[in-house]
Amino acid sequence: MVYLSCMVHTSVVRSSLRFVVLDLVGDFITWPLWWYTAGVRGVLDFLIRQVRTEVSRLNLRVWLANLFEPMFGQSDWQGRAISVVMRLVVLGFRVIVLAVWLIGLSLLLLLWLLLPLAALYQIAVNLWGIPQWVEPIDLTL
User: Fold this and answer.
1) Could you read off the pLDDT of 34-46 as tens digits, one per residue?
2) CA–CA dist 118, 136 (Å, integer)
3) 42-74 pLDDT, tens per residue?
4) Which of 35, 52, 54, 126 sits CB 3.0–4.6 Å from 39 for a disulfide?
5) Model-level pTM?
6) In this structure, how many other beta carbons lie within 10 angstroms of the beta carbon of residue 83?
7) By CB neighbour count within 10 A (0-12 exposed, 13-18 middle, 19+ buried), where does 51 fall?
8) Which has the closest alpha carbon to 109: 42, 25, 30, 26?
9) How far apart are CA 96 and CA 91, in angstroms?
10) Kind and range of the H or E run holding 93
């Protein structure tokens, strides 16, 4: 009975040590590799889906295809001129919305890429102090 208890205890200790060493330490070491490979790929897939969704939501192709079609059945030259101008204005606003959306998504990608570097910088500052090349900011008026 004592022998069985020692075997179970040794097995639990060995399993615990294996978990700590291989899983936790291994994950800590391989995390940066995942962040900049599979993690970036996942973020890029998400961003591409977001762009496609926004383009389909804005219906830019439909607006371009119907640019010279008369609105409200007004087929005279005044009706066509007004419809072209109105559609160009609406199309311009939609392109601006898409551009702002793309800038925001680009900033998200940049944040994803820089976040680990910022964390490492903060760890270094907390462990070894503020580097001499960083000037303190004077916030007094």
Assistant:
1) 999 999 999 999 9
2) 18
3) 999 999 999 999 999 998 888 888 888 888 777
4) 35
5) 0.69
6) 19
7) middle
8) 42
9) 9
10) helix 77-128
